[in-house]
Design a protein that fits this description.
Layout lengths: L3 H6 L3 E5 L3 H7 L3 E3 L2 H8 L5 H15 L5 H21 L6 E4 L8 H17 L7 E6 L2 H12 L4 E6 L2 H9 L4 E4 L1 H12 L10 H15 L5 E4 L5 H5 L6 E4 L1 H8 L11 H5 L10 H10 L1 H33 L1
Parallel strand pairs: 1-2, 1-8, 2-3, 3-4, 4-5, 5-6, 6-7, 7-8
Helix pairs in contact: 3-15, 4-5, 4-15, 5-15, 6-7, 8-10, 9-10
């Protein structure tokens, strides 16, 4: 009998949720996603020191020998995610997601500018934009920025999706892909209710992604649904059949080493037969639904803050490494 990972790949696109290039080579996913926390973690691994050092040296060469260290670090910071992305694209056959600075999550114009800059860096390195997803937090402002980028042929991945209102707004604005965060939703409900665990089928994160998937397929939206942020294998197997799943190396290894029959849980046919009411989404509706959803409100804000802190940690790491190189 085949392992669970091989069976999952037959019904769902498997994506590696990591900046660890060795892990991506091991599990042969179609795509890969990164975020500030993952890039920061990878940048501290000895095997990737050369990527960090080459990025810093390239930034120094660009700004000049007499430029202050802060200017070098700022430029290197902007380039590092792309440096990792280029390495990853040598392995995966299709796409990598690269995230816009989370500190711009409520600034539409700045997010558009940063998205264009990231694509320009990839294209300057000879990578076509169809292999890149620009990752943006699913605030209303982020969704509007992503809409503009999509109209320019720059495809986007809207991350930190916790509520149906965020998902619908993304679909109605022509977003390529969304990343609902299964495990973080579970975390919130466990803390809020005091429960230690949920069965996979009633896991609040699984229920949320299932509702989003069924809504999109029922009403013919083309936006891809990629479940993310998993806490256990049960969450993953309960979403078998969803468009994509981005999975950490540890859980990929568990799936690969587990044999058994994997049953498809989600399908367009089942979604088409479901009884769902359509919601017309505008900013007022979005804001009202977001305010009414305590979990989504708290987790979106917490997620943006967490990514921002990871970026600050990365900036500090780059500053320290530059000082070592130039000592």
């Amino acid at each position: 009998m085949a392992n669970l990972l091989d069976q999952l790949k037959e019904m769902t696109v498997v994506v590696a949720d990591t900046g660890d290039i060795a892990a991506i080579q091991q599990f042969t996913p179609r795509d890969a996603t990164t975020n500030p926390s993952l890039i920061t973690a990878a940048a501290q691994m000895p095997e990737y020191q050369s990527i960090v050092d080459d990025t810093l040296k390239g930034a120094r060469a660009t700004v000049g020998a007499n430029a202050p260290a802060s200017e070098v670090v700022t430029l290197a910071f902007d380039r590092l995610a792309v440096s990792f992305g280029l390495k990853i694209l040598d392995i995966v056959p299709q796409r990598v997601s690269t995230e816009v600075d989370a500190r711009l999550s409520y600034d539409t114009d700045a997010t558009i500018e940063k998205g264009r800059d990231l694509i320009a860096q990839y294209e300057a390195a000879g990578v076509s934009r169809d292999r890149i997803l620009i990752k943006v937090a699913a605030t209303w402002e982020g969704i509007q920025a992503a809409k503009v980028l999509e109209q320019e042929g720059i495809h986007t991945n809207l991350t930190l999706v916790f509520g149906l209102h965020q998902a619908i707004a993304c679909a109605e604005n022509g977003i390529q892909l969304i990343s609902p965060f299964v495990g973080r939703i579970l975390d919130w409900y466990k803390k809020d209710t005091g429960r230690d665990s949920y069965e996979p089928a009633e896991d609040p994160g699984v229920v949320s992604v299932t509702a989003i998937y069924n809504y999109f397929k029922k009403f013919g939206y083309k936006t891809e649904v990629m479940g993310a942020s998993f806490r256990n294998v049960g969450e993953i197997t309960e979403l078998a059949g969803v468009d994509l799943l981005t999975i950490s190396p540890g859980l990929l290894d568990e799936l690969q080493s587990t044999e058994g029959e994997l049953v498809r849980k989600l399908s367009p046919a089942q979604a088409a037969a479901s009884d769902i009411e359509k919601i017309d989404m505008d900013k007022a509706t979005f804001d009202a639904m977001h305010a009414a959803d305590r979990m989504a409100t708290e987790k979106l804000s917490e997620g943006i803050d967490g990514f921002a802190k990871a970026l600050e940690a990365l900036e500090a790491l780059l500053a320290n490494r530059l000082a070592e190189i130039e000592a």
